[in-house]
Specification:
2 domains, about 15% strand, globular, Alpha-and gamma-adaptin-binding protein p34, about 300 residues, eight-stranded mixed β-sheet, 13 helices, alpha/beta, disordered C terminus, Rossmann fold, Alpha/Gamma-adaptin-bd_p34
């Protein structure tokens, strides 16, 4: 267990009859056949090898079978928490509150409140609005495994928000794990190659970073002030390996800023984001082809 203790971890707890190990099995790839190990009484560790297009990292999914504080050697490795609750119960959030004194001290970057579904106006249980208000106050993100979907509304959207367990995995993979290893990639010479890590020959590879950023529109935060000034502030950090990770951590904020701009300005600013990342990995501006490639009609 000595090597596992050195890996960063995700704390998974359940405030109802659902076993936390069931949540872990949803997160893990079905091909993952690793056997969990018992760390302490009531604490199991499931190894998870995260492998994305850009990096790899080994982390642990720790399940707590009862309310307890982890010993210091395990507690300092906790980087995220996933808390499942029963939204159909009137006291669902009260049960979550009963766990908070054991979770607040971790001060992690990723906090997810998970449930099956929160209805807008339920006759019993926790409403979606109530759960969202609780999450805002506590610094959590509400994720529903089986959310109510408006098919007509979704059909009109350019970008559909990720939901369910896929959103949980997405949020955890977006975290900058302290032990991550960047994958070796062929040096890209165009914007499409920078996005896909290849030669950009396929039609899919021709989808540029600017298109991706312009589609992923999120509600802007009025507190950010002038959008272009805010983007300039965020992009002023390119130039070293450390700065690359800083940019990576600010990507969500940059997308929020871009969402409030008109389409043409979004694409222009998105090109600056690409250029900042390119410089962050040691590239020169004149090495990157930022000419917009339009797919054939």
């Amino acid at each position: 267990m000595d090597s596992e203790e050195q890996n960063p971890s995700i704390l998974v707890v359940s405030c109802c009859d659902m076993e936390p190990s069931c949540i872990v099995k949803m997160i893990l790839d079905p091909k993952n056949s690793a056997t969990p190990s018992t760390v302490l009484e009531g604490v199991e560790a499931f190894p998870w090898h995260i492998s994305t297009k850009y990096y790899e990292a080994d982390v642990l999914l720790l399940t707590l079978g009862k309310k307890m504080l982890l010993p210091q050697d395990l507690a300092r490795g906790v980087q995220a928490t996933v808390v499942f609750f029963d939204s159909s119960a009137d006291n669902g959030l009260e049960n979550v509150e009963g766990w908070m004194s054991f979770l607040r001290d971790y001060e992690v970057d990723v906090n997810i409140l998970l449930c099956d579904r929160c209805h807008e106006n339920p006759t019993s249980g926790v409403s979606k609005r109530t759960a969202q208000e609780w999450c805002v106050k506590q610094g959590y993100e509400l994720v529903e495994l089986n959310p109510e979907l408006d098919e007509e509304w979704e059909a009109e959207q350019d970008f559909i928000e990720t939901t369910g367990i896929k959103r949980v995995v997405q949020a955890l993979q977006a975290h900058v794990w302290p032990n991550l290893t960047m994958k070796e990639r062929r040096e890209p010479t165009s914007m499409s190659a920078l996005l896909h890590g290849g030669d950009g020959n396929s039609q899919t590879d021709r989808n540029s970073v600017t298109d991706r950023l312009s589609m992923e529109a999120l509600p802007p935060d009025p507190s950010e002030g002038n959008v272009e000034d805010r983007l300039a502030e965020l992009l002023g950090c390119g130039g070293s390996e450390t700065d690359f990770f800083q940019l990576f951590g600010e990507l969500q904020t940059m997308k929020e800023c871009l969402s409030s701009l008109p389409s043409d300005q979004r694409k222009a600013c998105a090109e600056q984001v690409v250029l900042a990342f390119w410089r962050g990995i040691g590239g020169e501006a004149d090495e990157l082809d930022l000419i917009d490639e339009q797919p054939p009609a």
